[in-house]
Design goal:
Blueprint: H1 10-22, H2 37-42, H3 49-62, H4 64-76, H5 81-93, H6 98-118, H7 128-138, H8 143-165, H9 170-191, H10 204-213
């Protein structure tokens, strides 16, 4: 061990593991999904940085991103494999569109494939946020840290998608992520008990956009 080096604390190890899982370089293919954003832009329902920020805020506070946070926390706190699979069936049943279900399932499968090959964790076939919550518990990574970085990564991925779909510069993109980071923390605090009775969604324009994207003629994203 070189001079000045020290053994990493569990917290430092957890941060590195989690950062690897949610990194754009982790091969789950999240960059191929726009969560209906491509249809929103195509329909001209969303056309500016301000519109984008408002939509992302609503997705965090009242839409599918908040629902993901609830399922992540519920999976983290889950006591049995049977409960985990029942939770997964509920999540799939609540998918608002075919494309929403595709996104959750495919990301979950990709995360399972890579993570099982690298870490000594056996993961059931579950949707992406449930897989993240389950693995974070298995690796003793703190729940709030997991959920916070998961939500920020979710928002960052959608902002990156927006940069390919509409006039949005790098600086404005980073401003949006910074402004929404405190909202990520609020949502984590609101959902940390994983109470699935608290699931609700009122961002109907996003659900409609996802349905319209299914038949969109020209597109670059899967959802």
């Amino acid at each position: 061990m070189g001079m000045g080096a020290r053994t990493a604390t569990p917290t430092e190890k957890s941060i590195l593991t989690l950062s690897q899982w949610i990194s754009p370089s982790y091969p789950v293919g999240s960059f191929t999904y726009s969560h209906g954003l491509e249809a929103l832009v195509d329909l001209r329902w969303l056309s500016s940085a301000e519109n984008l920020q408002d939509w992302l805020f609503n997705m965090l506070k009242y839409g599918a991103v908040r629902t993901d946070a609830l399922f992540l926390a519920a999976a983290y706190n889950c006591k049995s494999g049977e409960d985990l699979m029942e939770m997964n069936m509920k999540a799939r049943a609540l998918a608002s569109s075919q494309e929403r279900l595709l996104e959750m399932d495919e990301l979950g499968k990709a995360f399972k494939s890579v993570t099982e090959a690298v870490w000594p964790i056996e993961i059931d076939d579950v949707i992406y946020p449930i897989a993240i919550g389950f693995c974070a518990n298995a690796e003793a990574i703190e729940l709030n840290l997991t959920a916070s970085l998961y939500l920020q990564a979710y928002i960052s991925n959608l902002v990156s998608a927006a940069q390919r779909l509409m006039p949005l510069g790098q600086t404005d993109a980073q401003k949006i992520i910074k402004k929404l980071s405190p909202i990520c923390l609020q949502v984590v605090d609101e959902t940390k008990d994983g109470n699935l009775d608290d699931i609700y969604s009122s961002v109907f324009i996003s659900d409609i956009a996802a349905m319209k994207h299914e038949t969109q003629v020209s597109r670059i994203f899967k959802t």
